[in-house]
Design a protein that fits this description.
The complex is a heterodimer of chains A (426) and B (169). Chain A is mostly helical. Helices cover 80% and strands 0% of the residues of chain A. The radius of gyration of chain B is 20 Å and the shape is elongated. Helices cover 76% and strands 0% of the residues of chain B. Classes of the chains: A mainly alpha (426), B mainly alpha (169).
Chain lengths: 426, 169
């Protein structure tokens, strides 16, 4: 009963637009005061501090910073030129360039909103100029950027790893095959649209041009090698890999001599704000977590679900439906922080691999980034393309269907995400 | 100089100061991690690296949170408030702001109480640095958050009172 009242109180605060981090904190204070009286209140400060000092999460600001430097250093432009030389000869080439560049950029930035901001501002005006309809342009940019969050490195995966106590490196490895499958499916759909609506060919294929653009972008290609090679090779941790990414991005941008200092200043501060927003949620969820753990809420929920079914497939189906619903209304970081600690006991008890489930969660939230009313990536794409949200959502439905197909594949064929993990880590 | 101009300048100065701090902390974190990797690869690990990097992350959290509050960037759900009639919207913004400010007043107070207790504690890896110095970010962060909320309040109320684009904390 007390739990229900606490939940309803928190919901009421969220509905009157109290930031979710603060609503969690207030609920936790009420729980603390009820259980331990005024004497327990100083714990508030201690947990809010220790909750924000989780070492693996250091990777979040660093990957954001690396992405910001890449954006301002002319790297996006070079990547687009290479993808265009490689794929521009196919009908609807620019749409495919969009998907391909998003997938590549994902290997650097780790954030879908960063991908849309970096690539969308260059690609969307170019696509519209070539006659692609505005809603289609914004839709493919948005969906391919969200798919990118399952391609390593990925900020939602780092958050999940901390919340679920899973290996972040194994999660990164698990994202590779589903990410590539999703990217190829999105490109195939673009090709189908291009043939049906006669979208243009971008440029004639010339090996010389491919080589020239490859050379110009070669330093950018070095970056994922440094980041992922270092992390997968066990040379550095994910957080250290993120630190190296920042240094490498500064080096590359300085080499290209294209750093725009004003843009960099803004991007670093925006990155700091994004980090703070996520970390405040992490800290206040740690506060509520203390109460939830004491009250054994996740364990009781797990028992209730297991009394109903202990089939991993049915549990995954239920969790998928739940996560898709959550994704409609919550930002992906908030969803991971709120949901993962509560559902992990049931996931562990029915024998679902936490890395497998991590991919399921990340894909669900990638879809959530595309579905209004709360759809951070879609909204960013609409705002850059200056397109109506509902028109873009309509055009986006087939691309969302592709993301759902990848989700079903990942959910029910665990070998798809886990093949490489088993291969490298036994 | 009108009161509005003074308030505007105060807000700009406050925002600029927070931006400088957040920028410096972000760069400091990147430098610390990189230097630590270089030292470790050279066979000479920095013992203070993990602890200090975590503290910088906590500082980014609280200084950045105040900046996010000033910009109205914290994650919230505004759909219901947006759908309310204008007067109710303004009242809801005031209620929501009261909850937010009350939370940070409590956090600041709890942080202050803890500082007194931690007065004699020092970091494990850097015994010359007092824990009350590192934990002071809770008190300072709570105060900065409250200031940010108050500086943004007129804008939030104006937005809530306008027919088109309401806003919240």
């Amino acid at each position: 009963m007390a739990m229900l009242l606490l939940f309803l109180g928190m919901l009421a605060l969220v509905l009157i637009n109290v930031p979710i981090a603060v609503a969690l904190g207030i609920a936790a204070i009420v729980a603390m005061l009820t259980a331990g009286g005024l004497d327990s209140l100083p714990n508030l400060a201690i947990v809010m501090f220790t909750g924000a000092t989780k070492f693996p999460l250091i990777a979040i600001p660093l990957f954001i910073l690396a992405g910001a430097i890449m954006n301002t250093g002319g790297i996006s432009r070079r990547l687009i030129a290479f993808a265009s030389a490689l794929l521009g000869f196919i009908r609807g080439g620019l749409a495919m360039v969009n998907v391909a560049t998003s997938m590549f950029f994902a290997e650097i930035s780790g954030s879908a909103v960063a991908d849309v901001a970096a690539l969308g501002s260059i690609l969307m005006p170019a696509m519209k100029q070539k006659g692609y309809p505005g809603p289609f342009t914004a839709a493919i940019t948005s969906s391919s950027a969200s798919l990118a969050i399952i391609i390593p490195p990925s900020i939602p995966m780092i958050l999940y790893a901390v919340m679920a106590d899973a290996s972040v490196v194994q999660l990164f490895v698990a994202g590779i095959i589903p990410g590539v499958i999703g990217g190829l499916l999105l490109m195939a759909l673009c090709y189908w649209y291009a043939v049906r609506y006669d979208y243009p060919v971008e440029e004639v294929f010339q090996l010389r041009r491919v080589w020239q653009t490859f050379k110009e972008a070669s330093l950018a290609f070095l970056l994922p090698v440094i980041i992922l090679g270092g992390i997968f090779g066990g040379i550095v941790t994910a957080s250290e890999g993120a630190g190296l990414a920042v240094v490498a991005a500064i080096g590359i941008a300085a080499w290209y001599r294209e750093i725009n200092w004003n843009q960099l200043w803004t991007a670093v501060i925006d990155g700091g704000v994004q980090t703070a927003v996520v970390m405040l949620l992490v800290a206040s969820s740690a506060l509520l977590g203390v109460y939830l753990t004491e009250a054994q809420v996740p364990q009781r929920l797990a028992q209730a679900i297991i009394d109903f079914t202990n089939s991993p497939w049915l549990v995954l189906l239920l969790l998928n439906i739940f996560l898709l619903a959550v994704g409609l209304f919550l930002h992906s970081a908030a969803a991971i922080i709120l949901v993962v600690p509560i559902v992990m006991p049931v996931v562990n008890q029915v024998g679902i691999d936490p890395v497998h489930f991590g991919l399921v969660v990340t894909l669900n939230l990638a879809i959530g980034q595309q579905t209004p009313p709360v759809a951070s990536v879609l909204m960013t794409a609409c705002s850059i393309a200056k397109e109506n949200v509902w028109d873009v959502t309509k055009a986006n439905l087939p691309f969302i269907a592709v993301l759902v197909a990848v989700l079903i594949l990942v959910t029910y064929v665990p070998a798809v995400p886990l093949f490489l993990v088993k291969l490298f880590y036994g | 100089m009108t009161l509005l101009t003074v308030a505007g300048r105060l807000r700009s100065a406050f925002e600029r100061s927070l931006e400088v701090i957040v920028f410096a902390l972000m760069i400091a974190l990147a430098v610390i991690v990189t230097v630590a990797v270089i030292y470790r690869k050279a066979g000479d690990s920095l013992v203070w690296y993990d602890e200090v990097a975590e503290i910088v992350l906590a500082w980014i959290t609280y200084y950045g949170s105040a900046l996010a509050a000033l910009r109205g960037a914290h994650i919230g759900v505004s759909a219901l408030v947006d759908a309310l009639p204008r007067r109710l919207r303004v009242a809801t913004v005031l209620v929501a702001e009261s909850f937010v400010i009350a939370f940070f007043v409590l956090l600041g107070w709890a942080g202050w109480a803890v500082l007194e207790v931690l007065g004699t504690d020092y970091l494990v890896s850097l015994p010359e640095v007092s824990t009350s110095f590192t934990q002071s970010v809770i008190v300072i962060g709570a105060c900065l958050y409250i200031i940010a909320e108050l500086l943004r309040l007129p804008e939030a109320l104006r937005a809530a009172a306008s027919p088109a684009s309401p806003g919240g904390p």
